[in-house]
Amino acid sequence: MKTVFYYLLLLPAIIFASCNDDDHHSVITLNKTITDFIETKYPGAVITETELAAGGLIEVDVVHDSKKKEIYFTAADEWVRTEWDVAPSTLSQEVLNSIATAYPDYVIDDVDYVQAPAGDYYEVNVEKGNFEKYLKVSLDGTTIEEF
């Protein structure tokens, strides 16, 4: 009887341990080109996770300067972009004014700072009721594009 009781206690642990996380993609091993890039561009960064992301991109999650950052590379090891969350309150008044003018009555929900080979920008998610838009905004607020 004790044996049956013991196995009944273990059953939930076995069931939950066997569940997979469908949000994660294939974990990959990074090559020297990528690790050298990370060490050079983000000195002291600690790699926390690697995976094959949507579109065949390689996603490398790091902690750098006390921020969680996601770095993306092509299959040919070319840097695509790096992004991390920033508080909407850190946006300059010019950027806030530009968004408010282009999207009146929308509220800023989420902001990512993005570094890319062509230049840095913000990815801003704005909402108005049940509607939401994703914007690419230049650091000075002069350019806004929907994507």
Keywords:
3 helices; elongated; 147 residues; disordered N terminus; Nuclear Transport Factor 2, Chain: A; alpha+beta; 8 strands; 39% strand; 25% helix; 8-stranded antiparallel sheet
Protein model, in words:
This protein has an eight-stranded antiparallel beta sheet. 25% of the residues lie in helices and 39% in strands. A hairpin with a 5-residue loop joins strand 5 and strand 6. By secondary structure, it is of the alpha+beta class. Mean pLDDT is 87; it is low at 2-22. It is elongated, with a radius of gyration of 21 Å.
- Look at the structure and give the mean pLDDT: 87
- Describe the biggest sheet? 8 strands, antiparallel
For the CA atoms, what is the radius of gyration? 21 Å
What is the CATH topology classification name of the largest domain?
A: Nuclear Transport Factor 2, Chain: A
CATH class of the largest domain: Alpha Beta
* Share of helix, binned: 25-40%
Strand content: 35-45%
